[in-house]
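Q: Structure tokens for this one, please.
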Amino acid sequence: MQVPIYSLTGEVVDQAEISEDVFGLPFNAAVVHQAMARQLANRRQGTAFAKTRGEVRGSTRKLYPQKHTGRARRGNIKSPLLRGGGVAFGPRPRSYRQAMPKKMRRLALKCLLSAKVKEGNIKLVQELDFEEPKTKPMVNALSSLGVTPPTLILTAQSLPNVVKSAANLTSIKVLPSPLINVLDLLSYKMIIATVPAVRSIEQIWGRNITKKESSKNSENSRRKSHAPL
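A: Here is the predicted structure, written as tokens:
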């Protein structure tokens, strides 16, 4: 799969071959939704806590006589029906973590990356770095590339000058490519990625061919070449 490489002035300077295994998969909505729900659940702290009527501090004295007052039949002041009393079925500390198979997590990321390529919402640049952290060069680069927020900028490694240059821009996020995740890919419409960042993504999330598979493929090809016609 060929995609153009842009300069920071918006001109096409080269073509890059990207992996079909990472950027050419059909979209799987069910897997992407499950990965998104898992990431949202896993970042919850689960520390919400409310006291029950047995844990609230207060007197256990009956507020007033059971009969002949014309009022409700009250117990003590710690009742959930009264202000300052306990909470019935309130939240307790718990874990919201969800498990998901590794292959499904990888598939969700590759489905979103493939969708970005198919929709034309990813642009590759050869390099992206500035001599000093300034907002103006970043604004000029984004406008030259024809990119509008929300935009996710992917670099192969952390670049402080690029991060600081985009810090004052709304809906612009700079992220090292090994840290891509489902929520960021869903939250930002456009992606600007450097070529080294794309190679890093292919290396991490692509299909790793083991030596055993490689020898097996070579053996199969050798057999086919020597097969009788």
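A few notes: Residues 32 and 108 are 5 Å apart (CA to CA). Residues 2-26+110-205 form a domain with the Ribosomal Protein L4; Chain: A; fold (CATH 3.40.1370.10).
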